[in-house]
Amino acid sequence: MASEPQLEIIKGAKVLMVGAGGIGCELLKTLALSGFQDIHIIDMDTIEVSNLNRQFLFRQCHVGQSKAKVARDAVLRFRPQINITPYHANVKDPEFNVDFFKQFNVVLNGLDNLDARRHVNRLCLAAEVPLVESGTTGFLGQVTVHAKGKTECYECQPKPIPKSYPICTITSTPSKFVHCIVWAKDLLFAKLFGDKNQENDLNVHSGDADNSSKQMEDVFIRSLDENLEEYGRKIYDHVFGYNIEIALTNEETWRNRKRPTPIYIRDVLPENLPGQNGNLENCTNEGSPVSAMSSLGFKNSQDVWSLAESSKIFLEALRLFFEKRDKDIGNLTFDKDDQLAVEFVTAAANIRASSFGIPMHSLFEAKGIAGNIVHAVATTNAIIAGLIVIEAIKVLKDDCKNYRMTYCLEHPTRKMLLMPVVPFEANKSCYVCSETPLLLEINTHSSKLRDFIEKIVKSKLGMNCPLIMLGSTLIYEVGDDLEEDVAASYNRNLDKVLAELPAPIISGTIVTIEDLQQEFSCNISIKHREDFDEENEPDGMVLSGWTSAPTEKDDRIKSNGESSSAAIRKLDNADEVEITAGGEPIESGGLKRKHSEISERPDKEASVAHHPGSSSANQGMPQDIGDNEEDDLVLLDDSPEIGKKKRLK
Ligand SMILES: Nc1ncnc2c1ncn2[C@@H]1O[C@H](COP(=O)(O)OP(=O)(O)OP(=O)(O)O)[C@@H](O)[C@H]1O
Ligand SMILES: [Zn+2]
Question: Which of 28, 57, 143, 412 can bridge 74 by disulfide, Cβ–Cβ 3.0-4.6 Å?
């Protein structure tokens, strides 16, 4: 129960929540029950059936409605006297500018993607409003506090980019099931059902450079009256049979690897097997999604299909796409919520896995890998929401010496389920909250301004509405209010190489980039470089400059000079840290952690190297630190003495 003065602070606070999903629902409820009376919520989504198992403010009848609005109505039913203002909108919309953010005492994030998190971080920095940031992945979760001038900002530590795989591992030498999944969704699925114009490296790299890509293209084109069964079998034989034969001709590749086995459909499924075509009636029921599994009578998504079963699903899913979803073909991108797409990708990945001697997986598992899904745990969201409120109250009391980043661990470690850590001070070389310039190595004679904007400014720097300047010369700007001829000249610049722009970007120049909405700008020093490694530097440009971690001693808020709080203490050994509690190092044995591990998130993203997927879920979370036989739950005191623990009986 909050003390009287604390309650007054809570009652007088105006808070902004971003995200009304898994964490957001718990958070809104906890805020309301803790006495908060003026809460604004932004969420751009509508409610989906798959949200209902954990987003407890929503019911079946709300499916399709705004999360922010339904969450508000649900909470007002038990706290009718408080003010909740919902916005069914993207936090990146221009209306949510710095002035909008300035009206709040604290901002609380319950988001699921890096892009929006970075955007909110910049607005909070510009508006000088503290941010409590959070994330969960299954049993893991964390809450961090970011206050300008007091702690590091959300972007002070570079966030690991989603794990991606070298293209040749995916196209030629898969060794794990995830490689087969990436191949099936990013290459095969994209080739058959996606945008025909996008680059797609389904070709097998063989010693025989003449592996005709012309022939390759022809195979995928379906003539208007081509029988779908025959078309499916042709694709099957091409990608699982012929391509593997070609790959095998490159002896060098297989010298130290297990050779794959080509698979042809005639060996797996005899032609025109009765019943093989599925039962179209079953899958045309109004309202139910088109599904190869239901068409073929497969019920359990946790079963691992045999090679023959995978092959049946492959052919059936392909047929259903062409017969039932023909309007989508050419525009599809893989979506984990698209049942037919998941079935197709699972089947294709399993057939490829079988060819390469890799264990096959169930649709349920494959979906998790393909969609980068770690199943959400409602309890973790509830714990994290509680911790957000605890930190928010400290922020409102300006109790910065007691701010904590708290990690929720999968297994209690040293009897701690929750690991509190003193926040770091700002990284002096953070390009977001300090003025340190970045360094970009790029071929200024061959890279176009368009590539620079897409790969660096938008993708790496997370800018929304960039403005690019060299000295006082504007090279590029976006905005609805631009005059036509100005907009046209900026557009012409997009296709020029950097060194040939009206103000040339060459080695030694410093480019200034600003995002007016985020009120954020940074400088990039340019260094010309002729060649890049295709495998390791697929963008053809390398951005660096803000990777250094904070330095020892001055890098974290001190608890009044005392050592009563948990802390991460840097060891002499440069990148190892030791987690300590109560000033005393927790007994050693499994607790020494590399700094890089502490700041890395669990990474299950599956994509090909040159298409890094979007990042979601947690950032900066410690991994499983080690099991402890005693599964005691340990709670943190609400008092500043975080080192003290209470045991739940
Ligand atoms: N740019 C954004 N603006 C506003 N809301 C956003 C933005 N990005 C994400 N969100 C919201 O953040 C919430 C995150 O919630 P959560 O992680 O539970 O995801 P979910 O979409 O509800 O569930 P799942 O992805 O697991 O199916 C979502 O409701 C989503 O709409
Ligand atoms: Zn920073």
Answer: 57
CB-based contact 549:157 (threshold 8 Å): yes
DSSP string, 11-52: HH-EEEEE--SHHHHHHHHHHHHTT--EEEEEE--B--GGGT
One-character DSSP codes across 579-608: EEETTEEP-SSS-EEEHHHHT-------EE
Query: Residue with the nearest Cα to atom 24 of ligand 1?
Result: 51
42 lines ligand 1 (CB under 6 A): yes
Q: Which atom of ligand 1 is nearest to the CA of 116?
A: 1
Q: What is the pLDDT of residue 313?
A: 97
Nearest Cα to 157, choosing from 407, 433, 394, 474?
433
Say if ligand 1 is within 6 A of residue 45 CB.
yes
Residue ranges of domains in the chain, CATH in brackets: 1-162+372-434+577-649 (3.40.50.720), 164-370 (1.10.10.520), 438-544 (3.10.290.20)
Q: What is the pLDDT of residue 609?
A: 42
pTM equals 0.70
* Lowest-pLDDT choice from 118-132, 301-315, 491-505, 594-608: 594-608
Among protein residues, the one whose CA lies closest to atom 15 of ligand 1: 21
In sequence order, what are the residues at sequence separation of 6 or more whose Cβ sits closer than 8 angstroms to the Cβ of residue 84? 28, 32, 39, 40, 41, 71, 72, 75, 76
**Region 47-70 average pLDDT:** 93
Q: How far apart are CA 186 and CA 606, in angstroms?
A: 9
Q: What is the Å distance from ligand 2's center to 438 Cα?
A: 13
Structure token pair of residue 191: 């080739």
Q: How confident is the model at residue 207 (pLDDT cuts 50, 70, 90)?
A: very low
Using only the alpha carbons of the chain, give its radius of gyration: 27
CB-based burial, 66-93: b 16+ in 10 Å, e otherwise: bbbbbbbebbeeebeebebebbbeebbe
- Which ligand lies nearest to the CA atom of residue 48 in the structure? 1
- Per the rule left: phi > 0, alpha: psi between -120 and 50, beta: everything else, 279 is beta
